[in-house]
Write a structure and sequence with these properties.
Rossmann fold; Dna Ligase, domain 1; 24% strand
Length: 481
């Protein structure tokens, strides 16, 4: 069970029933105590100066593997410039703030009393979590800018101290809460989902199985969207069940969570490597992983078209470097279609992958977790279509499937799938392969594979969810926090 700790040199100002309150010298000499390594710490010492007590409090907390607010990186970000850090507030967040106005405000744990400023306060707090933030808001060239500085408890008057106390109590009650009903759980997990996603990696029934399986291993898992997740360091683990992309909040959250010390699947490196097909196919070639013949193309000139026709026969397959669920993948049957599609795609991407077309009645999908195959499916092509997904169809948008035990899968398919993941990482992957006669080709490795109730779990059932949560529990144990 986590221990909440508040470090403040003015204990007469701060009261809190959910945390132990100590001064800087006590924290310096008395912590960590044996058995109290799972500590969350709110640092209220003055951190506005480099190498101050507040700075060293957060630095020591990170060395002692305590989850601290603010972190050293936040302190450095907000104190590296004497005039403050200037950030642009996103337009959707800035709408509530009147145009061409200015305001200097104090923010306590991401809260401000003015509802027109509160959304901005929440946004800034999520980017730079600190108990007290000073915001100077002003408009410039139709953009709302916030100059952010750290605030200090010693600078507050009595009214401001009361506001801080109120928000501190709310924060420890509702965010860093210590509810008795949660005592049976050792860890907290955020399962990131997108309730508006058309083709999510897991359906609601599968997500419920994940939550239930997590509970079996002492992990309290909750389904949260990007707008609901709040502070990452309130969790021990992040499980991403939203379709990932590099220039996307899924990648940003994975990176941030890793910095905070969370166990993360999909980890940022896996997202970076799997989401870009240029990296994958170059890595396949370098690591001698069998894959369809592939060329990278950066123009649609006649010489390029002639080279492609020399290397491939029609039809050819064209792929956007970043795509998922068969989107951004096209088949062209002649030169006119090739030229038109190349020109169209190159308007948005500097590189296109051109591949040989391999016809099969189905694609293999092998689920690999930490270097071990855990499930296997055969996805058949969608009706009257050459891919397993037909995004243009009103009905039958995906083909049939067969789920089987991994020991029923040809050994060559399993070994190729596991080998394809070896240079990417040790996360959870879905490897797509084609088997043509006695040859196996890796099409791609997905960092965020589909796991849906009644499909990928058709053979293992609930055991599939247990195996994945067992991996989280193992990594949490190894982390030692």
């Amino acid at each position: 069970m986590r221990k909440n700790l508040i470090v403040s040199n003015d204990s007469s100002v701060i009261e809190n029933t959910n945390a132990m309150i100590v001064n800087f010298n006590q924290y310096l000499s008395e912590f960590p105590k044996k058995g109290n390594v799972t500590t969350r710490l709110i640092n209220l010492c003055d951190s506005t100066q480099y190498l101050s007590q507040g700075y060293y409090c957060s630095l020591l907390a990170e060395a002692r593997q305590h989850q601290v607010l603010p972190s050293v990186s936040t302190i450095n970000d907000l104190t590296c410039q004497s005039e403050g850090l200037v950030v642009v507030i996103p337009a959707t967040t800035a709408r509530s703030f009147a145009k061409n106005t200015t305001s200097d405000v104090l923010v306590y744990f991401g809260w401000h009393a003015d509802e027109h400023i509160n959304k901005i306060a929440q946004y800034v707090f999520e980017q730079y979590p600190a108990p007290i933030l000073k915001l100077a808001l002003h408009w410039q060239e139709q953009k709302l800018l916030a100059t952010i500085r750290l605030g200090a408890l010693e600078e507050l008057n009595l009214e401001q101290q009361a506001s801080l106390q109120l928000r501190l109590n709310n924060f420890t009650n509702n965010v860093w809460r210590s509810n008795k009903s949660r005592k049976r759980y050792r860890w907290d997990m955020a399962i990131l989902v997108n309730h508006q996603e058309d083709t999510p990696p897991s359906d609601p029934k599968a997500l419920k199985h994940f939550v239930k399986a997590a509970n079996k291993f002492g992990i309290n898992a909750e389904l949260v969207s990007v707008d609901e997740i709040g502070l990452l360091n309130r969790y021990d683990a992040l499980f991403i069940r939203e379709t990932t992309a590099i220039r996307h909040h899924t990648y940003q959250l994975a990176r941030q969570a890793e910095k905070e010390g969370l166990v993360v699947i999909d980890d940022a490196t896996s997202i970076l490597r799997c989401c870009n097909k240029v990296f994958l196919h170059d890595a396949f070639s370098y690591n001698s992983v069998p894959s369809p013949k592939t060329l990278f193309v950066s123009d649609a000139s006649n010489s390029t078209l002639e080279k492609l026709e020399q290397e491939f026969s029609y039809p050819m397959v064209l792929k956007l470097p970043e795509s998922s669920f068969s989107k951004g993948v096209f088949k062209v049957a002649d030169r006119l279609a090739l030229e038109q599609k190349l020109s169209s795609i190159l308007a948005d991407s500097a590189i296109i992958l051109v591949q040989e077309y391999l016809y099969t009645e189905y694609d293999w999908r092998i689920g690999v977790l930490n270097g071990r195959a855990i499930y296997a499916c055969r996805y058949h092509m969608a009706r009257n279509h050459w891919q397993i997904y037909n995004h243009g169809a009103k009905r039958f948008s995906s083909g049939d499937f067969e789920t089987m035990a991994t020991f029923e899968v040809p050994r060559q398919v399993l070994e190729t799938a596991v080998n394809a993941c070896s240079f990417i990482g040790s996360s959870l992957y879905g490897v797509d392969l084609k088997q043509v006669n006695d040859k196996v080709y890796v099409i791609e490795v997905n960092d965020n594979p589909s796991i849906e109730q009644g499909v990928e779990d058709r053979y293992l059932g609930y055991e599939l969810y247990m195996q994945i949560m067992q991996e989280f529990a193992n990594r949490l144990e190894q982390r030692g926090r």
